[in-house]
Write a structure and sequence with these properties.
Elements: H1 3-11, H2 13-17
């Protein structure tokens, strides 16, 4: 469980970094 990753994914930044 990574709260930081979830927060980024909600921002749409993680999806781009994927």
């Amino acid at each position: 469980q990574i709260p930081q990753a979830t927060a980024s994914m909600k921002d749409g930044k993680w999806e781009r970094k994927k």
